[in-house]
Amino acid sequence: MKTNFLTLLSLTLLLSVSSCTIDINERTGDGETISTPGTTTGVLPEGGKLSGDITKDLTVKKGNYVLEGIVKVADGATLTIEPGATFTVSTNVSSSLVVLQGGKILAIGSAAEPIVFSTTAKVAGGWGGITVYGRAPIKAVNGNATAVSEDGNALTYGGTDANSSSGILKFVRVEYAGKKIGDGTSETNTFTFYSVGDGTILENLVAYKGTDDGFEFFGGTVSARNIVSYGNFDDAFDWQDAWKGQNNSNWFAFQTVTGNFGMEIEASGNTDNTAPKISNITLIRDANTNPEVAGSTEISAIQFKKQGSGIFSNVYVSGYKNLGGKNAYAVLIQDDATNNSQVNTTPSKVVVSPLNYVNSDNLGVWGYAATNGGATFTNAATVTKVSLPTGAWATVDGVDLLAALK
């Protein structure tokens, strides 16, 4: 059965849009989207459907919309989303918002009028979240300058422009992402950034109850400020391919019900990498939180592996307790190679200090999955939780996602 969107939109377009056209999309019964390329431009009508390929500039104003299918912002096109725009994402087909290399997104909400992506069912794993591809450098396995994405799109990523911009994401909340892809067991992240450059602005973002990581960076140079990972099933924050953002601040994770590491950090085995820098991190694990797999060791706050590195300052960690016969630590070094090449260098490329580790087990020591490296630390009681602006951007169904920071 085919549904022709032209019939549904034509009257609205005649009344509300001048000097613009909208893609004509048809969806077949097997979920395939057929797009007429090169015609999307202007303003999406109030209550309209965002679908198919965006090949020219398109603006979405305040209002309620539907997002259906894999929506791709093409090279040379800009998707502008204004404050107060809310998208109900279709879960009947595989849906996600993907910004391709050379495409841009200008999604600029406000604390009072955020841009929200959610689903009717409000069940984790309903859709694929937001993925952005940039043109900044990466170091993949074996130092490769390119790699193929693992988000189901199987696109090559990696570039040479560290300063490239993919646009702005500001006061954006993404709910219930993490749809299974490929083999039926892997999931997408809520926010995924492939080789995104530091000309991109990421500020005041919420990843809410996805089935994989809240935020994951695959190489690139972009930084993020004021970001919240709440109730995501895998890791709150994750990166690989030698991501090296240098101006990150105010990261907050609240793990509840299901959650693995607060932060999972690797550099895809590349000894020669530039350590990312993050100031002001708060990781809180609710008392009812279990790892995805019972008995897993994935219950520590911050894990470094595969040559992962990071310089973190003003870190507040709470609630990481031993569970299922496994130990929880503020910092866990997974392998000797990382300990030798990243931790035990001068200066060290793995720094978590000052650190305030409270309401948790194994105080004062780092954990080591291989050889016990013996690093110790003294709690810095002066380190407090991060401070973030309040408002609708961090409130879901009347629940204040920042309550644990008070």
Could you walk me through the main structural features you see in this protein, from its secondary elements to its overall organization?
Strand 19 and strand 20 form a beta hairpin. The chain is built from two helices and 36 strands. The relative contact order is 0.09. It is mainly beta and 406 residues long. The N terminus is likely disordered. Helix content is 5%, strand content 35%. The radius of gyration is 21 Å and the shape is globular. It has a 16-stranded parallel β-sheet that branches. The protein has an eleven-stranded parallel β-sheet with strand order 6-9-12-15-21-23-25-27-29-31-34. The chain has a three-stranded antiparallel β-sheet with strand order 1-2-3.
Report the helical percentage. Answer: under 10%
Rg of Cα set: 21 Å
Nearest-integer average pLDDT: 90
Basic shape: globular
The rounded distance between the terminal residues' Cα atoms is 53 Å
Return residue spans where pLDDT drops below 50 for at least 5 consecutive residues: 1-40
Structural class: mainly beta
User: Biggest β-sheet: count, sense, barrel?
Assistant: 16 strands, parallel
